[in-house]
Amino acid sequence: MVRQRYAESMLSTRAQILDAARRLFVRQGYHGTSIREIAEQLGMTKTAVLYHFPTKADILAAVADPFLTDLEAALARVTTRQEVFEALLDVHLEHRTLLRDNVIQELTRLAQAPTLRRFTELMADANRIAAGPDPTLAEKVRAAQAIAALSDPVTAFADEPVDRLRAEVLRGVARLYAE
């Protein structure tokens, strides 16, 4: 019982740190936010934050992790072009505030190796699936254009009703393949 409460407290503290960090990253940017400010938001010491996350980059990676985990899971279950478009769009819609708030852009600007590499590999997998087997250059380009077209509307219109936004994005992507 004591171990369980301790574990729940640790998870709760980590979640609180991530929530405070995300809010500050949105307001001030990653580089404009210090670990001290994150700690102050929570009434903690800087050392307490560093106990849970040794670096600010670790905090950013943890903020992005649910998005990347969902991308991995989505790509693991798709085999066709349409499935990859729908699965990626659903992940983008699920994490639309993270995308809207430019947290992923902060991650790519930071170029934090393992997390950025994970994201890059996932996008390469999505492009490969969307392009199909033995694709021509034209098919590769069209797939890359379609994959890229999934996130920007979600970011730009994150507050729109999800069902309508999803339908419009998929309609736009389909137009890329209309002959």
From TrEMBL:
<dbReference type="InterPro" id="IPR009057">
    <property type="entry name" value="Homeodomain-like_sf"/>
</dbReference>
<dbReference type="Pfam" id="PF00440">
    <property type="entry name" value="TetR_N"/>
</dbReference>
<feature type="domain" description="HTH tetR-type">
    <location>
        <begin position="11"/>
        <end position="71"/>
    </location>
</feature>
<dbReference type="InterPro" id="IPR001647">
    <property type="entry name" value="HTH_TetR"/>
</dbReference>
<feature type="DNA-binding region" description="H-T-H motif">
    <location>
        <begin position="34"/>
        <end position="53"/>
    </location>
</feature>
<protein>
    <submittedName>
        <fullName>TetR family transcriptional regulator</fullName>
    </submittedName>
</protein>
<keyword id="KW-0805">Transcription regulation</keyword>
<dbReference type="GO" id="GO:0000976">
    <property type="term" value="F:transcription cis-regulatory region binding"/>
</dbReference>
<dbReference type="GO" id="GO:0003700">
    <property type="term" value="F:DNA-binding transcription factor activity"/>
</dbReference>
<keyword id="KW-0238">DNA-binding</keyword>
<dbReference type="InterPro" id="IPR050109">
    <property type="entry name" value="HTH-type_TetR-like_transc_reg"/>
</dbReference>
<keyword id="KW-0804">Transcription</keyword>
